[in-house]
């Protein structure tokens, strides 16, 4: 196990990752569907949103992972709370935390929980309080593959580590065959692709390998690929394209990229049955996480070797970071109102349609309670 606190400052989640600045305003936008072109925001009525005393501009920035979730939330929220203008800039987690710690924003989105020194820094901005982590958005990292004749493939952390470290180089290797006794594995070279760019997806994937197979993965988790060998491609779209067009290929990517007929690996965990990469199974894994933050902080510790049935172990969590006390008086009503909607039943209901994993009920209930007490 490991706190999701290390090296996760530029996570891109699925086709939802973006670059550059994004201003989502209360005027709303019609171009706020999910990554497949659907309208993820159509699931929840705007009438259920409590605007309270919210008004004016609400400035926030950070994780690009939650871009389409924020997009869908703002569309609904702006329809109900016309006196509020929400501006979310997906600059990346690190930049978002920096802006928050400098007092430039009401809250930040981050793909990892605040580190101890960042919590100390936040006390300068959060008068009589500190920055806290509110887990709001999750999602699975899928392992896509292209092996002719093999539509169902099971791998475990040890085998994945050896494949991506060039220690297992052929698809009919004994270790793979043992996990797939009914598969007709071809005598075919493995083409393992990793990201050429620094990526939070790489960081989270290598954290899983390090935590679940420490004897077989000698490298520290990092946004930059550290292992030897393999081939690289730019972005999740790049590695996904390589898997689609290359016989024998395998790579890791956000679930929304593993589509159009791409097969994905089921992961053998401590549970009785292998677990597929689905939104529901990612939510189950997050449900097995422990809250390790103190006080009102809800930072999570993920279990990378879950024994719960249907808990997919390679997941991402994005937090909203806000002051527990000492929030700016002029933006506090809007902050609480918008965060309350994000964490509400209606708000969380938008996530699956947008390619995200909603927070499990036991976690999101604590998030709602914490938001109500912000001051």
TrEMBL record:
Keywords: Phosphate transport, Signal, Transport. Phosphate binds at residues 63-65, 93, 111, 199-201. Residues 54-345 form the PBP domain. One of its GO terms (molecular function) is phosphate ion binding. One of its GO terms (biological process) is phosphate ion transmembrane transport. One of its GO terms (cellular component) is ATP-binding cassette (ABC) transporter complex. CDD domains: PBP2_PstS (cd13565). Residues 1-23 form the signal peptide. The keyword Nucleotide-binding does not apply. It holds the Pfam family PBP_like_2. It comes from the Bacteria. InterPro entries: ABC_phos-bd_PstS, PBP_domain, Phosphate-bind_PstS. Belongs to the PstS family. This is Phosphate-binding protein. It comes from Streptomyces griseomycini.
């Amino acid at each position: 196990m490991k706190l999701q606190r290390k090296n996760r400052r530029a996570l891109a989640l699925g086709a939802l990752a973006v670059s550059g600045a994004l201003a989502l305003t209360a005027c709303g936008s019609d171009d706020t569907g999910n990554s497949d072109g659907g309208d993820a925001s159509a699931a929840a009525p705007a009438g259920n949103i409590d605007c309270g005393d919210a008004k004016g501009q609400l400035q926030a920035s950070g994780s690009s992972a939650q871009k389409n979730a924020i997009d869908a939330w703002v569309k609904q929220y702006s329809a109900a709370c016309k006196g509020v203008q929400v501006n979310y800039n997906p600059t990346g987690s690190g930049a978002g935390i920096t802006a928050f710690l400098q007092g430039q924003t009401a809250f930040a989105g981050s793909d990892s929980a605040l580190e101890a020194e960042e919590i100390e820094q936040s006390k300068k901005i959060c008068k009589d309080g500190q920055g806290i982590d509110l887990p709001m958005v999750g999602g699975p990292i899928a392992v896509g593959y292209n092996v002719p004749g093999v539509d169902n493939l099971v791998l475990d952390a040890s085998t994945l580590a050896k494949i991506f470290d060039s220690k297992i180089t052929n698809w009919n290797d004994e270790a793979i065959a043992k996990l797939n006794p009914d598969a007709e594995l071809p005598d075919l070279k493995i083409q393992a692709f990793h990201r050429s760019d620094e990526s939070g997806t790489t960081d989270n994937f290598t954290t899983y390998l390090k935590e679940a197979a420490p004897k077989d993965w000698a490298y520290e988790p990092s946004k930059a690929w550290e292992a030897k060998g393999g081939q690289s491609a730019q972005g999740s779209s790049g590695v996904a394209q390589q898997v689609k067009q290359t016989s024998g290929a395998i790579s890791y990517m956000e679930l929304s990229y593993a589509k159009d007929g791409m097969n994905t690996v089921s992961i053998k965990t401590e549970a009785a049955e292998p677990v597929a990469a689905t939104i529901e199974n990612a939510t189950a894994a997050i449900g097995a996480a422990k809250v390790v933050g103190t006080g009102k902080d809800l930072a999570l510790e993920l279990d990378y070797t879950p024994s719960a049935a249907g808990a997919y172990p390679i997941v991402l969590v994005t937090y909203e970071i806000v002051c527990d006390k000492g929030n700016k008086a002029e933006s506090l009503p809007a902050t609480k109102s918008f965060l309350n909607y994000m964490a509400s039943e209606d708000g969380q209901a938008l996530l699956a349609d947008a390619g995200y994993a909603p927070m499990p009920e036991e976690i999101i209930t604590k998030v709602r309670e914490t938001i109500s007490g912000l001051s």
